[in-house]
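Revision sheet: structure tokens.
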Amino acid sequence: MRRLKAGDLIVFYSPREVMGSGPVLQAFTAAGRILDEFPYEAEQSAGFCPYRRRTKFFKSRQAPVRPLLQELTFTQGNESWGLAFRRGAFRITADDFKKIAKAMSIKSEDLSSTFAPEK
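Predicted:
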């Protein structure tokens, strides 16, 4: 969370429908642009206060990961592609982000719009 800067693009991968359990999903489920410069702590439940970032989420649809496996540089030719996601947050190339965004039906003008951080 601390490595992200205002204006950075972020995409979320969900292995399952519910965190830690539930049916397998294996899809990119959300994408957005970071709006703030610093993370903040938010109480999610008693004793659990994860860090968050203010994010403008793009209008999108879920995109299954399997059709993209041979197109994305971080999964291409890797039978154990799921290991890449176990690292948590990691940097991907702009080209990979564009491929994921296209699969999620995110409008290209949303990605290329001029960014002005909110004050």
